[in-house]
Amino acid sequence: MARLTFPIASEGLVVDVFVNLKAALLLPLWASGGGPAPIPGRGLLDTGSDISAVSLALLQRLGIPPLQSTSTRTFAGSIQINLYEVGLHVFDSRNVNLPWFSQPSLVVMELAAGIPFDAILGMDVIRTCNLHVDGPGGRFTLDF
After folding, report:
1. Strand duo 119-121 + 53-55: pairing
2. What is d(CA 12, CA 139) in angstroms, rounded to the nearest whole number?
3. Domain CATH number, residue 124
4. Which of 11, 74, 109, 129 could form an S-S bond across to 144 if both were Cys, CB 3.0 to 4.6 Å?
5. DSSP for residue 36
6. pLDDT value at residue 4
């Protein structure tokens, strides 16, 4: 089992991420010598979110069109959102040679404006790994 360990930041469980096209679109482009480079960013693990989210600015930079529009419930009530399909990878920018925790095809919603992260990783991602939080040690680990 592969493992990534991060320090607990003042903002919470913060990880390094790369976002790109979903793998089914990206791999043929790379094979022909094209395709966009992944965009790095900061992600936050959020056990209170059922679905992951990526900033609209990042989705637009990659040219990813919405899959569909739907509604979701928040603490403030029901809101309309767009869903997108991306490839999302968690890595350790301090040592990029460590294994990456990859989601080659992940349906995400657009992240609300004003959130200081490029991605929110919800329970849809967290359920695919083992998350261990060592509060006294000031670190958390993803086993995948």
Report:
1. antiparallel
2. 10
3. 2.40.70.10
4. 129
5. P
6. 98
Comparing 28 with 19, which gets the higher pLDDT?
Answer: 19
CA 104 vs CA 8, 90, 143: distances in Å: 26, 11, 17
pLDDT, tens only, 90-103: 999 999 999 999 99
Using a cut of 0.85, tell me whether the model's pTM lies above it: yes
Q: What total number of domains does the chain contain?
A: 1
**What pLDDT score was predicted for residue 79?**
85
Task: Give the residue among 52, 70, 36 at the shortest CA–CA distance from 121.
Answer: 52
Q: Which of 26, 31, 38 is nearest to 89 (CA)?
A: 38
Nearest to 117, CA basis, from 68, 53, 61? 53
Q: Residue 63: what residue type?
A: G
d(CA 53, CA 137): 28
126 alpha-carbon distance from chain centroid: 10
Q: Which helix (H) or strand (E) holds 59?
A: helix 56-62
Query: For 11-137, where are the E strands, in sequence order?
Result: 14-21, 39-45, 53-55, 68-74, 77-91, 101-111, 119-121, 130-134
The pLDDT tens digits for 27-70 are: 888 788 888 889 999 999 999 999 999 999 999 999 999 999 99
- The range of the structural domain enclosing residue 28 comes to 3-143
